[in-house]
Write a structure and sequence with these properties.
By secondary structure, the chain is of the alpha+beta class. The chain is built from 5 helices and 8 strands.
Amino acid sequence: MDAFVECSGALGLGASSFADYVVVDLVTKSDVWLPYDLKGRPQPDVYAANGPRLSALLRDLSEVLESETDPGEPTYFAKPTETGAENFFHADGTAWDVWGSFEELTRYGVFRHAPGFGRIGYRRTAEGDVRYVPVQGGRAAVLGYLWASDSENAASFEPRNVGDDVTYRAGLVWLERLRAAHDRGLSPSAALAELSAMPDEKGAGRVDPASEPWIVGLDALRELASGDR
C-alpha cells in the first residue's frame, strides 16, 4: 500500500488575540494522521508515514511558541491529543465508522433541505408524486435521479451513493442548475425538461435523451435510490 496520500489543504494554521492573550490553532480536515480512516479501516502505512509528522509539528509549534499544546474538544470524527489525534472505538475494540455515521448524513441533508430554512429555490422534499429521470455517469452507471413536482414547487437530485465523492459532487452540480432555473422563474417540471437536455459537464453526468420521466411517490424514489446503494 502506498503510504503517500495527496491531500491539499490538509492542515490550516490560524491565530487570534485579545489583549495580551494569543491563541494559535492547528486544524486538519484529513484522516491521514489516524491509525484507522474515517470508515474504520486500518491504514498502518499511511499512519506510519504521517502520524509522526503531525506529532513533530505540534512539538515544534509548542517549542517556538513556548506554550503547552492544549487539545481541542473531540469532533464527530476524532479526538485531538497533545501529540496528534485518535480514532473512536467500539466497546469490542473495533474502530468506529464515523464517516457513515455522520458525514454521509450531513451530505445527504443538502439534497433534502433547501437553504434559507427551505425558502431559497425549490423545495427539496415532497409529500406526493414526483416526475423523475435517471442521471447517468460513466459507463451508463446511474448517479442518481433528478425529480420535480409542480404541485409542491419542489425539485431536487436524489443520489444513489452520497458517500461517493464523484456522486456527491455531481449532485451538487444538479442542485446548482436547479437553483439557476428557479431564479429564472421556471416551474419545477420546466426545469426538469430543460436540465434533462443538458450535456455532461463537470462530471455531473447526463440524462439519456430517450428517457421519458417516470411518476412515483418521492418516498418510493428514495427507497429505490437507497436500494441501489
